[in-house]
Write a structure and sequence with these properties.
The chain has five helices and no strands. By secondary structure, the chain is mainly alpha-helical. The protein has a domain of about 90 residues. Helix 2 runs antiparallel to helix 4. The termini are far apart.
């Protein structure tokens, strides 16, 4: 064995002689301060915090699963019912955000499929491409050409005009 030993690898066992603690008649001020701090500040704060956590554990509230009640559509609001107009507008904005997120999720799935499949993306990701086409067409039919300042009223008018055009096309096709 070499003379320069690695003392960390070959640790020496501890000695068996006890370490004597100094015992004085004067108490240590640090331990007194720690004890006073523990009972005066830390213990009440810890008690209150644990009590609050127990109360919250009984009534769990998941803010990210908040469910809004469906409000009447703008077409169902009575004339002059401004509160109904406001609620319908807020509901329309929430629906629009949900539809935007749906389109983004489908786009991310298509991108992941293309990344995963590589050169075979055209045949192996056909289902995702078809799904993206359907979702974007539905989104474009409902919210397309509304612009940045689109609202529930203009969206409703757009849908009404589209329905009128479809009825005219059916009437012309049947004649």
């Amino acid at each position: 064995m070499p003379e320069d030993r690695d003392w960390e690898a070959y640790k020496v066992p501890p000695t068996r002689t006890p370490v004597s603690e100094r015992i004085t008649s004067v108490p240590n001020p640090v331990t007194i301060f720690q004890t006073v701090f523990n009972y005066v500040v830390d213990a009440p704060v810890t008690f209150v915090r644990e009590w609050i956590e127990r109360q919250q554990a009984k009534n769990k509230f998941y803010y990210y699963h908040q469910k809004f009640r469906r409000v009447p559509d703008l077409s169902e609001c009575l004339e002059g019912d401004y509160l109904c107009f406001f609620e319908a507008e807020a509901q329309w904005r929430r629906d629009r955000m949900v539809d935007q997120q749906i389109v983004e999720i489908i786009q991310e799935r298509l991108g992941a499929c293309k990344q995963r499949e590589g050169p075979n993306e055209f045949q192996n990701c056909a289902k995702e491409v078809e799904q993206l086409m359907q979702v974007t067409k539905a989104y474009q039919d409902r919210y397309g050409d509304l612009g940045v300042h689109g609202n529930a009223r203009t969206c409703l008018m757009k849908q009404k005009h589209r329905m009128i055009e479809e009825r005219k096309a059916q009437a012309n096709a049947s004649q």
